[in-house]
Amino acid sequence: MGAQLRVYKRRIQAVTATKKITKAMEMIAASRIVKAQRKVAASLPYATELTRAVTAVATGSTTKHPLTTEAEAPARAAVLLLTSDRGLAGGYSSNAIKAAERLRERLGAEGKEVDTYIVGRKGVAYYGFRERTVAESWTGFTDNPSYADAKAIAAPLIEAITKDSAEGGVDELHIVFTEFVSMMTQNAIEGRMLPLSLDQVAEENGTKGEILPLFDFEPSAEDVLDALLPRYVESRIYNALLQAAASEHAARRRAMKSATDNAGDLIKSLSRLANAARQAEITQEISEIVGGASALADATAGSDK
Q1: How far is it, in rounded angstroms, from Cα 145 to Cα 155?
Q2: What mean pLDDT do residues 267-272 have?
Q3: What is the reported pTM?
C-alpha cells in the first residue's frame, strides 16, 4: 500500500510541474496576442492606400499587365501556405493545412498543376513526411514576422507569376492563412492574390462603386504597375503573416489554458486517490495493531491458566 501512495505522490509532483509550465506559456501567449493585434492594425492604413493606388492605375488605363490580366487557359497555380514553427497551439496548423489540401483538390479538379510554397516548420514537416515536392519554404519567424520576411516570400512568387507557364511560371497565386477574428475565433481561409480581381479588391476594401480620381501616368501605366503590384503582394503577404501570428498566439493561449485546467483536474483526482490510499494504509495499520494486541491478550490469558 505504501508503494502505491508513493506512485500517486510522484505523479502529482510531475503534473504540478507540467501545470506550472503550461500556465507560464498561456500567460506569454496572452501577452503576445496584444502586440500582434497592434501590428495588424498598424499595417492596415498602408495596405488600404496601396490598394487604392493599384486599383486606380489598373482601372484608369488600358494596359494589359501580367499581374492584372487573366490567362486564357490557366494551367498552373502557386499556393502559399502559412503554418507555425512551433506546436502546442491546438489545431492551428492542421486547420490551415486542411484548407490548403481542399484548395489543391479544387485547383486539380480544374486541371491546374499546383506549386506549393510553405511558411512554418509544421507545414514543411507535413509535406516532407509525405514526400511531396515544395517549391520553396521559409521558417523561423512565424510568431513574430517582419516586413523583410514578407518581401523575401513575395520575391519568388512574383517572379513565378511574371514568367510564362512554359518556362516554369504560374498563372495564379493563392494564399492560405489563419484569419484572426477574435481571441476565441480564428478561421483558416484561402484567397486568390493574383491575377488581381479589381471588383473583389474594391469590395474587400469598401471602395466598390466609389469614383476614383483620374491620373496621368509617367513614364507609363505599365511601369507604374510594375512598381506598385509587387508592393501590393508584399503588403498582402505581410498582413496575412501578422494575422497568422496573432491567430497562432491565440490558439496557443487557448490550448495552454485547456492543458492547465486539465492538469488541475488531474491533480485533484490523483489527490483523492492518494488520500484514499493513505486512509487504507492507516486502516490496515490500525487493524494490524488491534489484531496483534488481541493475539497478545489471548496468549497472555492462556499462559495465566
Answers
A1: 16
A2: 89
A3: 0.82
